[in-house]
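FIELD: query
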Amino acid sequence: MARTATTLLRMVNMILVRLRETTVTTISGSGITAHASLAGTGKTPSYTDTIVRLINDAKIEVEDSYDWIELRQMISVLVESGEITNNIYDDASTARQQGDKRGSDNQEHTGPRSRVISVWNYTTNSYLKGRPYDWMLRQHNDAFISGATGEPMFWTVGPPGNMTNDALDLKTYPVSDGSYELEVQLYNPQEDLSADADSFLAPWNPIYLRALALAIRERGEDEGEQFSDVMKAYEMALGNEIAYEQKHQHHGLGGGDWTVVGDY
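FIELD: result
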């Protein structure tokens, strides 16, 4: 059986067909990037632009509903001597590639929706322990007085601190006594899709059904029978995808998130 990626263009046309609209051969210039170019021109976004926006809204909702395996990523962060804070943001030349499938730039950065799962010290082959943000501040206040330094042993995440790339800050303790390469494992959702060939990392079927429901409601059939039917299909598809994902994540653990041990 042939495997074909579900692209943004394909999903736009799937929705247009369900709405009995004419399909398009390209969405170039659609989406959020197009809206800036329309500013001051007196033009309004096309219906395709609206569909693209609804798809991205649905994508965000599905991505935030579960920690999908395909949205996990590893980003390398280099901690230099004397440092305590680093942006979780690298380009392809400095980040260790782990099979990421996020386009030409590999999306080697984080955003407000990113979540850190673990931090591995690649230099010393050891895991750092996560600690609350307030705990980290107290330790660094004490370290500032004592001047203590050492190998980074603890981590926490601060709010986005770089207005250029909106990346999260990784804070470590103690103050680094040398150079260390940290491998940060993240749940890192995709940015908005905007090009014809952009493909989805989260399951595409619930994204499609949710976007279709939003499109039906946008046309004025709010809370109508058709909207309700599609929403039921969306909720079922999302539940099925989560159940399927759990089978992969918990494989070898007895089929759930706990394991029975001992005699039985």
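FIELD: remark
Confidence is low (pLDDT under 50) at residues 30-37, 91-106.
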